[in-house]
Design brief:
Structural class: alpha/beta
Number of strands: 14
Strand content: 15-25%
Distance between the termini: 76 Å
Strand order of the largest sheet: 1-11-10-9-12-13
Largest sheet: 6 strands, parallel
Number of helices: 17
Helix content: 40-55%
């Protein structure tokens, strides 16, 4: 990791470096993705089957594209019972947290006969993408599906690539069963995103697509946005730790590495007011790298996007954290709650030495689908509202409209929209 003094120029350089990881900077792949998306839109199953054979190396057809109940039962029967129970407890925590986000429709009536309100309903069909093979993460499946179930979505479609033998990762099937997925299709990549966005002979069109994936999946979601809603164009994982002299170096180092192991583009940053802590954390990282299984990935991640920033004050540290707007933010200080009140931009905040980031990844309940690449300045974690649609309700009596019609007519006329004004005026002529 690079240890540098936190200055305005250092902060600017760091932000520019981190932004290089954004999917928006992978334009060289956009033409390839656009071709796949257009093929699926025009040719449906024919294109999906062809791309699956090309990329996943197996013969997919109408009669084997969908995961059967027997395949799900086989996965459940072969699953480690203890892990299944852990997933169930995690799912219960996720559901309990997201139930608190539910909002009700409302109506406001006034004495003049006007009625205003908002009707809140779930979307009809939600689609979730789940990576396959070694990149299969049951935790992400739970985080994507359970908020939709809590929102009341009636039909949840899942796509995930199968191996060359036509089989889906069994852990993925177990998680899908626990979460309550309705239909699972054995396709992956950009073609899966396009199939859910436009629908094919075998795969239903959905209203929203969520879920992580590689750069081709991310760019396909970007290309299909507008035809279908999406969660976000997610970038690589990132963690930022704010710590002072009271933090335990071993805990800080372990938490930084928990995100650096995701991939070589992951970012791990420590901002501290203590040079002693910075030095000890660097030593602990070296020790951990001797024993961790993904040490090569971690090393490359830290070489490119690992930083220890030395701040003159906690105010400077907080200012830098708000500028970075990290996906995950841990606060390991003497008074973490005081620091938390001054944080404006973060996907998720973890307070204190016993709230390490993996707690949020797997178990606590808040969603781990979080804004990345500084988008926590304006985006939120995946939540129940993402699976809801809101409709405004307007009803005026003659009395209510009569009191306001001249205001409306003037407004419309000032915008040059005389038909708008006339639509109101004719009711009082």
């Amino acid at each position: 990791m690079k240890t540098i003094t936190l200055t305005e120029q250092a902060k600017k350089d760091l932000l520019n470096s981190l932004l290089k990881r954004s999917p928006n900077n992978y334009g060289q792949y956009e033409s390839v993705v656009a071709e796949i998306v257009n093929d699926v839109r025009e040719k449906g199953d024919e294109a999906v089957f062809a791309y699956t054979k090309k990329f996943d190396k197996w013969e997919i057809q109408t009669d084997n594209i969908r995961v059967t109940e027997e395949e799900i039962e086989e996965a459940l029967a072969g699953a480690e019972k203890e892990f299944v129970e852990v997933m169930k407890r995690s799912a219960a925590n996720i559901a309990d947290f997201h139930k608190k986000q539910l909002r009700n429709s409302w109506i406001d009536t006034k004495p003049d006969g006007s009625i205003l309100g908002q009707r809140i309903l779930p979307i009809a069909v939600s689609g979730v993408y789940v990576p396959g093979g070694k990149a299969a993460y049951p935790s992400s499946l739970l985080m994507n599906v359970i908020p939709a179930k809590v929102a009341g979505v009636k039909r949840i479609i899942m796509t995930t690539p199968a191996g060359a033998d036509g089989k889906v990762n069994p852990g993925t099937l177990v998680a899908a069963s626990i979460a309550g997925v309705d239909e699972i299709y054995k396709i992956g990549g950009a073609q899966a995103i396009a199939a859910m966005a436009f629908g094919t002979e075998s795969i239903p069109k959905v209203d929203k697509i969520t879920g992580p994936g590689n750069i081709f999946v991310a760019l396909a979601k970007k290309a299909c946005f507008g035809y279908v809603s999406i969660d976000s164009i997610a970038g690589p994982s990132e963690i930022l730790v704010i710590a002072d002299e009271t933090a335990k170096p071993r805990y800080v180092a372990a938490d930084l590495l928990s995100q650096a192991e995701h991939d070589e583009l992951a970012s791990a940053i420590l901002i501290t007011t203590s040079r002693k802590l910075a030095e000890e954390v660097a030593e602990q990282i070296d020790d951990f790298l001797k024993e961790l299984s993904r040490s090569e990935i971690i090393r490359k991640s830290l070489e490119q996007y690992g930083y220890i920033l030395l701040a003159d004050s906690m105010e400077d540290a907080i200012s830098a954290a708000n500028a970075i707007a990290s996906e995950h933010l841990e606060i390991l200080t003497k008074n973490p709650y005081d620091v938390m009140t001054r944080i404006e931009n973060a996907g998720a905040i973890f307070l204190g030495e016993y709230s390490s980031e993996p707690l949020g990844d797997y178990y606590a309940g808040p969603n781990h689908i979080l804004p990345t690449n500084g988008t926590a300045r304006f985006f939120s974690p995946l939540n129940v509202d993402d699976f809801m649609k809101k409709t405004s309700i307007i009803s005026y009596s003659r009395e209510a409209l009569e009191r306001t019609h001249k205001d409306i007519e003037l407004f419309a006329e000032k915008e040059g929209l005389t038909a708008h004004a006339n639509s109101v005026r004719v009711r009082f002529q």
